[in-house]
Amino acid sequence: MMKRLTIPALILLTLAVGGLFMLSPRNTQSVQSKFLGMIAPFLKAGSSVEARFNAYREGLKSLDELEVQNKQLLVEIKVLKATNQTLRDLETENNRLRHALGYRQRSVFKLVPARIIARDASTWWNTVKIDKGFADGIESDMCVLTEDGLVGKTTTVAKNASTVLLVSDENCKVAAMIEGAREQGIVRGERTSTNSQPELSLNFLPKTTRLNSGQKILSSGVGGVFPPGVALGGVKQFETRPLDCRASLIPAVDLTTIQDVFVVAGKK
After folding, report:
1. Distance (Å, rounded) from C-alpha 185 to C-alpha 125?
2. Which of 81, 232, 245, 247 is the most exposed place for a label (fewest CB within 10 A)?
3. 107 Cβ contact list (under 8 Å, min separation 6)
4. Worst-scoring range by mean pLDDT, 53-67, 120-134, 157-171?
5. Which of 136, 223, 212 shows the shortest CA–CA distance to 188?
6. What is the rounded CA–CA span in Å between residue 103 and residue 120?
7. C-alpha torsion angle, residues 190, 191, 192, 196 (rounded to 10)
8. Rounded Cα distance, 239 and 213, in Å
9. Fold that domain 107-267 belongs to in CATH
10. How far apart are CA 266 and CA 136, in angstroms?
């Protein structure tokens, strides 16, 4: 059956090809034109599909490039933010050191600059270690302060390091006076049952004393360890007791954030 169908098909194909050769050039162009007209829609459709495919592929490429650029931009933004924060921190530290330097230049005392190098969590409000010792002229019982006020006093002194007893420790007692008044008392740290920052208290004030909130308390200089006029804190609360008066103070120095201090090593 297949052979019977194949032979006529071959004969027809041979006749068609022969007919094409026998056609004149003009008839040949006419046939080609008709054939081109028949296949033109298919060529257009194929070209459109190819164009859409190329556009889709270019679109995917653009999306990939945009994603890569977006990731790079995010990294650059983070770098800029970190750089900005570093510069802001440096500006803050620079201003703080400039302020401290100005205080040192204005001070009538000989001040040895020192940096806190160690702080034990178990004695956070009691002591700190600084990077100056007897090789720098530091001795025991020297006043330690910042440009804002009193920090404490030196106790144990080694060659290149010293321990500072903080004013927030109850054993660091400071003779104090009220700014603009004659009354005097003793400032010391108050222990608390929690891990919160201990307060300072001004004790042994005469019963006639009257204090206002925010009023400044200064060292009086009695005792010789702490020079007069160093800020200790501001009045937070005031109460009258049976035998005397007492005030709780807000420390002049934020003991949680101090980094640089001065040791008073005598007068200029």
Report:
1. 22
2. 81
3. 262, 268
4. 53-67
5. 223
6. 29
7. 80
8. 11
9. Thrombin, subunit H (2.40.10)
10. 13
Q: Using an 8 Å Cβ cutoff, are 190 and 172 in contact?
A: no
Which amino acid belongs to residue 42? F
Kindly report, residue by residue over 66-121, the tens digit of the pLDDT: 777 777 777 777 666 665 655 555 556 666 666 666 666 666 678 899 999 999 88
pLDDT cut 90: percent of the chain above it: 34
Which tokens go with 242? 């049976």
Q: How far apart are CA 124 and CA 252, in angstroms?
A: 17
Identify the CA nearest to 133 among candidates 104, 107, 150, 156: 156
The β-bridge partners of 27 are none
Reference 249, options 148, 152, 168; nearest CA is 168
Q: Are 218 and 227 contacting, i.e. CB atoms less than 8 angstroms apart?
A: no
pTM above 0.70, yes or no: no
Calpha distance 209→235 (Å, rounded): 13
The predicted structure's pLDDT at residue 207: 85
Structure tokens at 237: 């609360």
Q: Token pair for residue 32?
A: 């080609």
Domain boundaries along the sequence of the chain: 43-106, 107-267
In DSSP notation, 132-158 reads --GGGT--TT-EEE-SSSEEEEEEEE-
Which two three-digit tokens encode residue 214?
A: 């925010």
Tokens in use for 87?
């510069």
Contact 112, 130 (CB under 8 A): no
| Beta-carbon contacts of residue 169 (< 8 Å; ≥ 6 apart) | 125, 126, 127, 152, 189
